[in-house]
Amino acid sequence: THLIPWLKRSSQVYHSSFVEEGITKACGCPLLPLKSHIKGPAPVSEQDRTDIVDEAITFFRANVFFTNFPIKSPADKLLIYLTFYINVALKRLEGCRTLAVGTKAIINLGLEDIPVPGETGFPFPGLFSLPSSQEEADLFRNYLKQVREETSGRLLSVAYRANGTPNKWWLAFAKRKFINVVLL
């Protein structure tokens, strides 16, 4: 396994269960199926199956405590990216006292430019390979946009209770830094 300096040996993290071969990749990232109605390049997954977004949300509160994350499969790279994205989204939700305000904050996050490897602002240099063409960069950007949008919607359903009030057991994790990466 190729390890990047901040991805050192650790046996405690939760890894992705998606290790299937034959999945289309962009920048070394598998374009895994999503249970989503959002348009994008991701294949559609069956609604009763776990997808990478389910894994990222389920494992987030455990994985966010680690400063090291060994990569065991290409899907772990996407899990790392989504864990970081959830961390960023929770930071945006931190001051939002209602679901309506939180939804607006998440929509604004979704409207921001999404950098791909090699572009300024991409949080993990070396995690994904550089795009070999503009088409690959666009495919990866569109996949990240789709998976981020899907993650945002599902995150809102756990970060806020049914009555629209914040769930402190989720929003408390906004203070954590995942693998010591800070968004500037």
Helical content band: 40-55%
- Identify low-pLDDT runs: 1-11
Radius of gyration from CA coordinates = 16 Å
User: How much of the residues is beta strand, in percent?
Assistant: under 5%
Shape: globular
Terminal CA distance reads 29 Å
Largest sheet: 2 strands, antiparallel
In short:
Belongs to the ARPC3 family. By secondary structure, the chain is mostly helical.
Quickly list its features.
single chain, 184 residues, mainly alpha, 5 helices, 2 strands, globular, disordered N terminus
Report what the structure shows.
Keywords: Actin-binding, Cytoplasm, Cytoskeleton. It is a single chain. The protein has five helices and two strands. It is mainly α and 184 residues long. Strand 1 (25-26) and strand 2 form a beta hairpin. The model is unreliable at 1-11 (pLDDT under 50).
Any chance you could write out the topology, listing elements then pairs?
Layout: E1 25-26, E2 29-30, H1 52-63, H2 74-93, H3 99-111, H4 134-159, H5 168-171
Antiparallel strand pairs: 1-2
Helix pairs in contact: 1-2, 1-4, 2-4, 3-4
Protein name: Actin-related protein 2/3 complex subunit 3
GO cellular component, one term: Arp2/3 protein complex
InterPro entries: ARPC3 (IPR007204), ARPC3_sf (IPR036753)
